[in-house]
Amino acid sequence: MKFINEFRDAELGKSLIARIRQRSTKPARLMEFCGSHTVSIAKSGLRQLLPPNITMLSGPGCPVCVTANADLDKAIALAELPDVIITTFGDMMKVPASRSSLQRVKAEGRDIRIVYSTLDAIEIARSNPKRPVIFIGVGFETTAPTVAASVLQAQQQGINNYYVLSLHKLCPPVVKALLDSVEVKIDGLICPGHVSAIIGSRPYEFIPRDYGIACVISGFEPLDILQCVDMLVAQVESGQPKVEIAYRRGVKPEGNRIALELMDKVFEVCDGNWRGIGVVPGSGLRLRKEYRRYDAEKNFGIKPGRPLEPKGCICGDVLRAVKTPLDCKLFRKVCNPEHPIGPCMVSSEGTCAAYFQYGEGYGR
Amino acid sequence: MCLAIPAKVKSINGTEAEVEVGGVSRKASIMLTPEAKVGDYVLLHTGYAINVVDEEEAQETLKIFQEIAEAEERESPS
Fold it and tell me: What is the pTM of this model?
């Protein structure tokens, strides 16, 4: 078993869809939080196969997309400092900040390197001891422990020219903010599988308890998502919301204790600035005082200037699931993957990119 | 961005492992999953194994799918 193709079987998928069609009678608005789920749903065409009483919404689960311009501008300002090497995941390169993008400042001659892992960033720091190497730390609870690991590695190995710009964000607090805003009405949440691999199932327990919303943690293959929808439908039909794990091969109720400890050792919770949502209390991570020497923001005096938003772009509304890309006047016209105006078109996991790539939402 | 793919552990040296994804070998850190053993599948995310894939649970899930398929067939024979 390789844990991929087994979960893509079309015949098993058909029977899961038949069962969902049979069992689902009430209107159910289901939100997938995670960008990887958005892509998987779009790619496999699941939205079109579900009965019409089930509405699928995309949430703010693409870390690149939810990074506010004010924070992107910090990355650009750091990139423009003399001698600095910026290391970043590839998704961040094309995202337009207020006045530029990492790709553009790279074209202007700055040293910006795409890395697959913080392990690569550490290696670059080791080979360039005289130059500051800054990693742009974007990502949710899945990624933050790997960045924490890199800071500890730098400390253990005496690598003193490694820095992190921590723009990490936490998922449960933003779900709470979305639900409190009462802008979006949902009946069920497809909880992010790999965030949950780290945090487990317990941090979601307030959602059924306080908001009466069904929660199922899902894997990422088409059968995983269908199983999750089937379990959410069962909860919605019975009127008994709770937190369940469908993705049992990847998620334990307690999460990954070691990763959580590492994350807590290096980072502390702070407010997070989300595009389209604003500042959400307790939804960000910053380096603890003990690790201040690795904190890019604290060690380099940058003045990124006032953030500007692109005219006409509705990424913020798309991220809050109050609009879809089809409601955007720019979508497919001036905004496309070659020339993205907003971040949801840039990231491969952005809702606009998924709609563009797979023709999502048409005829429905 | 929270993409993680199942990768098979081929060898382990301290917190470093050699893993195989789709026939390609690469280095990975098992700092977050010290329980990983050679032969296990791990969920690989940006060079780090974030969990060991639970094969028993995977078999159990596939069994549930099979049972749903059989039940559906009984209810709507074509």
Answer: 0.95
Q: Where are the domains of chain A?
A: 1-312, 315-358
pLDDT digit string, tens, across residues A78-96: 999 999 999 999 999 999 9
Cα-based angle A243, B2, A244 (whole degrees, multiple of 5): 10
Q: Do A15 and B72 touch (CB under 8 A)?
A: yes
pLDDT at A364 (0 to 100): 46
ipTM of the complex in this document: 0.95
- B53 at the A interface (CB within 8 A)? yes
Tell me the Cα Rg of chain B: 17
A61 in contact with chain B, both atoms CB, cutoff 8 A: yes
Q: Is A279 helix (H, G, I), strand (E, B) or coil?
A: strand
Token code pair at residue B5: 């793919």
B34 touching chain A per CB within 8 A = yes
Amino acid letter for position B13: N
Contacts of B27 in chain A (CB under 8 A): 119
A1-312 placed in CATH 3.40.50.300 = no
Per DSSP bridges, beta strands B16-21 and A188-191 are: unpaired
